[in-house]
Amino acid sequence: MSPRTDSRNDQGDPAEPRTVLLRGGEVHSPADPFATAMVVEHGHVAWVGSEGAADAFADGADEVIDLEGALVTPAFTDAHVHTTSTGIALTGLDLSRTHTVEQALDLVRAHATARPGDRVLLGHGWDAARWPGQFPPSRSELDAATGGRPLYLSRIDVHSAVVSSALLDLVPGITSRSGYRPDAPLIGDAHHAVRAAAFGAVTPSQRVEAQRAALRHAASLGIGSVHECGGPEISDEDDFTGLLELAAREAGPRVIGYWAERVAGQEDADRIRALGAFGAAGDLFVDGALGSHTACLREPYTDTDHTGTAYLTADAVAAHVTACTEAGLQAGFHAIGDAAVDAVTTGVRAAADGLGIARIRAARHRVEHAEMLSAGAVADFADLGLTASVQPAFDALWGGEDGMYAKRLGVQRASGLNPYAALLRAGVPLAFGSDSPVTPLDPWGTVRAAAFHRTPEHRVSVRAAFTAHTRGGWRAIGRDDAGTLVPGAPADFAVWRTEELVVQAPDDRVARWSTDPRSGTPGLPDLTPGTQLPRCLRTVVGGRTVYAGPDE
Questions:
Q1: Residue 389 binned pLDDT confidence (cut-offs 50, 70, 90)
Q2: How many C-beta atoms surround the C-beta of residue 434 within 10 A?
Q3: Contact 337/373 with Cβ under 8 angstroms?
Q4: Distances (CA, A) of 225 to 71, 256, 374, 433
Q5: CA separation for the pair 492, 79 (Å, rounded)
Q6: How many other C-beta atoms can be found within 10 angstroms of the C-beta atom of residue 515?
Q7: DSSP output for 263-274
Q8: How does residue 10 score in pLDDT terms, banded at 50, 70 and 90?
Q9: Which of these, 149, 85, 87, 84, lies nearest to 112 by C-alpha position?
Q10: Rg of the Cα trace of the chain?
């Protein structure tokens, strides 16, 4: 892209002009399916339209950008992120690509050598299910690899961890906590305690370094907003408030904070608001995760003899939703297993019985992950106005007849997971995210994963998936005026270098009809597996450039 800038901007840094005209590309806008140009003014979209009409705006613009055929879309919103952990994984010890326990231990040794000043060594991403023997590293192996230093290594789903003996020594009474197992990964309360100790040892400078790295990376991928999912069992208040303060003072993606702590009344709600949180939601755990055998199921796992772990009852859900609704605060929960989802829907229904269903629907309470959904649960989500904040990359990583889901649940139960098409048909609002660092920040890959779900009947069109990953995140925070490029909307957009634009849908007949120019349906990049994903050239948030690629 080539800009032409003049000196008419009298309101700040000339690098951030007041009025910008982008032209000569493809603008993805429902206002004009054939738009090639867009005007941004005062941080909002002022106009979208054709190349010929753009001439009328050229002389009045502070900057004119020739898109040179590039695609302009709304910026993505990642509706579920753990920013500091993402940054630590980006800048530190990432075990997600290891294929053996020996390879993982080699990386631990190298990391310990490279970080002699760290009080606690942190790593993430191991998955023993993909290793020969399927055994995680033992505590004695970790003690040897670290030279006796404290070490915390979270499993890929972050619901269990292996740790060194020196880290256990930092948590008094750890062996008496539920979830402590001397010869297996820690889960439950024991895991939460060691995680708090590990992340509590991160220095303020390390934390800021990690947060900056994560937000820079997000911006480079066309992500304009992230929903930070914090809470007392995940991070700490300093981490949460520090991130919000960093995002407020530095150019980068918007950060919407959720704090996962139960609310009993107005005082609790006021305290959570004082942290800067948008809601008492996110990872307020009703259960755990399938990979760690802690998701709460109606029937036992296929590969073990129990049904997982329940952290909240339906009564506790009802109390939280009632208190949040009365305080005007959005509530939400982490629920993966079908029994956990049942607890959420039963609890929200009880709250609706007490307060009236209209108030519950208006609050737009949300459920994170929501993987094991029966037809009845889908109907309940629609009736109660619950937003499903979901992660399509989970299916890409763990779905299929040979994937982790099938190992844990059997092929038949696993095939019912993540039913995005059913949710859309029922009218359930979808907001897409990554749960990074569980799966990487990868917005176009996320859209692809939903459109090419491993279970064909759960697939949605690329357009629907794209909407869930752009406008869906804004709708989840009650903003119906954003996440789309129409006049008056916030100027949060990304510019992409990509190949020919098409319209893809699960039904090939629809796809062929929609790619006819006469259909008037805005196109999107071809996301067929194996094709190259679009490359981000620029990301703009509120009219301000927060990322420009090396060619810009």
A1: very high
A2: 27
A3: no
A4: 19, 7, 31, 11
A5: 15
A6: 16
A7: --SHHHHHHHHH
A8: very low
A9: 149
A10: 24
* Fold type of domain 204-477: TIM Barrel (3.20.20)
Task: State the average pLDDT over residues 209-238.
Answer: 96
Query: Coil, strand or helix: which one is 72?
Result: strand
55-64 b/e (C-beta count within 10 Å ≥ 16 → b): eebeeebbbb
Enter the CATH code of domain 83-200. Answer: 3.10.310.70
Structure confidence at residue 500 (pLDDT):
87
Pair 450, 460: CB distance under 8 Å: yes
Q: Is 452 helix (H, G, I), strand (E, B) or coil?
A: coil
Buried b (16+ CB within 10 A) or exposed e, 195-209: bbbbbebbeeebbbb
**Beta strand 93-94 pairing with 63-66:** unpaired
pTM for the predicted model, two decimal places:
0.91
Query: Could you tell me where in the chain the CATH 2.30.40.10 domains are found?
Result: 19-74+485-498+534-548
* Helix/strand/coil for 223: strand
Contact 195, 231 (CB under 8 A): no
Architecture of domain 19-74+485-498+534-548: Roll (2.30)
